[in-house]
Design goal:
Elements (H helix, E strand, L loop, with lengths): L2 H15 L6 H8 L8 H13 L6 H9 L4 H26 L8 H22 L10 H16 L5 H11 L4 H29 L10 H25 L6 H21 L2
Helix pairs in contact: 1-2, 1-10, 3-9, 3-10, 5-7, 5-9, 6-8, 6-11, 7-8, 8-9
């Protein structure tokens, strides 16, 4: 397979899964079983493309932050994003210093995907007959920061999935929970990505091949474009639908991966 085809396919996978509550980590690991494995730097850059591309989908918030930052509502919302970001950052730094390493096997990731899917169905069942209209509070922002840490410790959970579920349980509507989850995720993932890029450039792995920046740029563009389309669809979808479809998808994916793993070890 030509390198550029593999890069486009990986960019599509990343763009579709990075912000949807279905775990991009799992999908990239699965894709890399059939596609040439890329460098960590490549994966970080295409993740950044997927994240940055969604900013234009929140024009009212961007306008509020840039032109109405003197107003209390704008400062409060930005402050809550900052609080969640700081909590995640401090926790992530502590995990890094403790030598925490992500699992490389699919077993724990498959279980996290499956459990997350069941949680979505249970939460949506609990929400029946309710009409949550709560707004983001400081305590909810703190919980979101902790939720991002949970997702970091248990890959396959999905950062957006974990934080959206927590906010739904705490009384936010689906659109409000999704918006805050995405807006918190932008600085969180960009900061984590910038740190990893810095480390990769200044301390490249021994024997690593030189980076093909043309392929990195191609992956970034594809991921950004696909992510923009996927998130725009999701923001419209949740206005009138539940997250049940994602719950069932996660269950099917988790069960499918576990079955393949059992067969492979049989």
């Amino acid at each position: 397979m030509h390198d550029w085809i593999a890069v486009i396919l990986l960019g599509i996978v990343e763009g579709l899964t990075e912000l949807l509550p279905i775990s991009s980590t799992a999908h990239l690991l699965i894709a890399e079983h059939w596609l040439p494995r890329q460098s960590d730097l490549f994966n970080i850059v295409i993740q950044s493309g997927a994240v940055i591309s969604v900013l234009p989908l929140f024009p009212e918030r961007l306008h509020q932050f840039v032109f109405q930052w003197r107003e209390k509502a704008a400062r409060d919302y930005a402050g809550k994003i900052l609080l969640a970001f700081v909590i995640t950052g401090i926790g992530g730094y502590a995990l890094d210093k403790a030598g925490f390493k992500l699992p490389e096997e699919l077993w724990p990731i498959a279980w996290a995907i499956l459990v997350g899917g069941i949680c979505f169905l249970l939460v949506e069942r609990w929400l029946r007959g309710r009409n949550p209209q709560g707004s983001v509070t400081w305590s909810i922002a703190a919980v979101v920061g902790l939720g991002q840490l949970i997702a970091a410790v248990f890959p396959g959970t999905s950062r957006s999935g974990a934080t959206i579920l927590l906010m739904l349980l705490l009384g936010l509507s689906r659109p409000a929970a999704t918006e805050f989850s995405f807006l918190v995720g932008i600085p969180t993932m960009l900061a984590a990505g910038a740190l990893k890029i810095f480390r990769s450039l200044h301390h490249p792995p021994a024997g690593a091949a030189p980076e093909n920046w043309d392929m990195v740029a191609l992956g970034f563009i594809v991921s950004a474009f696909v992510s923009f389309i996927a998130v725009r669809w999701l923001l419209r979808y949740i206005q009138t639908h539940t997250f049940n479809v994602f719950g069932w998808y996660r269950i099917a994916l988790g069960v499918g991966i576990l079955c393949l793993l059992f067969i492979g070890h049989g």
